[in-house]
Amino acid sequence: MRSRTAQEIWDTALGELQLQVSRANYRTWLEKTKGLSYQENQLILSVPNTFVAEYLDKNLRSLIEKTLMGITQSEVRVGFTVDGRSSTIEAEPVQQASMQAVIPVQGIVSRLNPKYTFDTFVVSNCNRLAFAAACSAADKPGMSSYNPLFIYGGVGLGKTHLLNAIGNAAVTKGMRVIAVSAEQFTNEFVTTAIRERKAEEFRNRYRNTEMLLIDDIQFISGKEATEESFFHVFNELRDADRQIVVTSNCPPHSIPEIEDRLRSRLEWGLSAGIRPPDFETRLAILQAKARKDGVELAPDVLSFIAESIRQNIRELEGSLNRVVAYSRLLRTAVTPELASEALRDISCRQPRTSPAPVLLLETVADYFNLELTDLRGSKRDKQTQFARQIAMYFLREKTNLSLAGIGRELGGRQPIIVSQAHKKISAELATDPAIKETIEALRQKLP
Ligand code: ADP
Ligand code: MG
């Protein structure tokens, strides 16, 4: 067989990456890259500038390498070179990777973030049970009263942090740990078990671990084959008293579209919810972060930020960063007024949260005199199909959802369908005044 060129491999990878990252990220970081050379399992990419090279290196390397592994069936390291020039950021050898502990367990590369430890987790009434259970699971893994440990809560409340803290503690004790998101589990299942027909090998990798950490399990809902495979892995590990920890955005009974037998198993151990932080907790988290970053801020500034951002700890941290950056940029001291300015500035130019997909869908359905269930269902008349395409277009434009995520919001449609709809509407928008009018009218109504 003719060996594939760097550009061919990279084009295939780009096709897959497009399905995995948001459109904005794809455009900013990936669209203008090219495959330059592929030798000895190293793929060199040409990128437009060092900024892009650094971003890809820091944030997308593992996703890129995993995607390439799926395509070439071998471990590939990527290097970046800035358009024609010779400065190349090469893949760090695995042993030296300082950002993330990389623990190969029989072919699974599982990554733990070393920054997420129990020490850096601020405990309060909102997360006390989850924290205590996580400590126990790390301390005495496999005890049936908390096996599985199921941690649930909203976005940015510390689920991934706790999951990694358990993993880091276990690794320190020399345990073999697999930590993957349910999305990675699914991708790996599709690649290994389905595409390569090595279901047995796939299962063996998992059944040999001493601890299994799965982030965002809700992702497998509706993916029957993956769920079935996870169900078997789960049973084998639990029968062998291996600790399993699962996180989700909702409690087991509310995960949509999973089979009852898996649901009931997820409820076997301990479920612990994390609630949004109260004011004191938000303040304590800000203080801890400011201390860690070596920035000094007046108490009233921290209180102001803690008052302004209520739901999400990731946003809370982001706001602190913004305020500090703003004061450095303007070279002025941070006062509550400046903080307010910094946060307002951001919040009007760039909405801090994108609209909830369901609100967006309801608005579109309403506009076309349809029900939400019509958009998600199987009706195929012209009007409904058109409305569905418009909904896909807006979800792509206005939220950070991936193509697959948008497909799920619309009743489980394929990413390729979403991509085609978005392309079609974008093209028609430029040429067809009636469509333009519809889009503009809807834009006014959207949340
Ligand atoms: P989730 O997985 O629930 O969406 P993450 O675990 O990614 O949320 O947390 C988002 C950010 O907030 C991370 O940087 C994390 O370190 C931080 N964080 C969350 N909870 C706490 C906490 N209780 N103490 C300190 N930092 C926290
Ligand atoms: Mg998370």
Task: Describe, in plain words, how this protein is organized in 3D.
The chain is of the alpha/beta class and 447 residues long. It folds into four domains: 84 residues, GMP Synthetase, Chain A, domain 3, CATH 3.30.300; 174 residues, Rossmann fold (3-Layer(aba) Sandwich), CATH 3.40.50; 71 residues, Helicase, Ruva Protein, domain 3; 89 residues, DnaA protein, C-terminal DNA-binding domain (Chromosomal Replication Initiator Protein Dnaa, Chain: A, Orthogonal Bundle). It contains 19 helices and eleven strands. The strands form three sheets. It has a five-stranded parallel sheet with strand order 8-9-10-7-11, sandwiched between helices. The chain has a four-stranded mixed sheet with strand order 1-2-3-4. A hairpin with a 5-residue loop joins strand 3 and strand 4. The longest helix has 23 residues. The chain is globular, with a radius of gyration of 23 Å. About 6% of the residues have low confidence. Magnesium ion binds next to helix 5.
Question: What's the order of the H and E elements?
Answer: HHEEHEEEEHEHEHHEHEHEHHHHHHHHHH
The strand count comes to 11
Largest sheet: 5 strands, parallel
Cα shape: globular
Number of helices: 19
Tally of separate domains:
4
CATH superfamily of the largest domain: P-loop containing nucleotide triphosphate hydrolases
> In which order are the strands of the major sheet placed?
8-9-10-7-11
Distance between the termini: 53 Å
- Poorly predicted ranges: 90-109, 345-352
The percentage helix is 40-55%
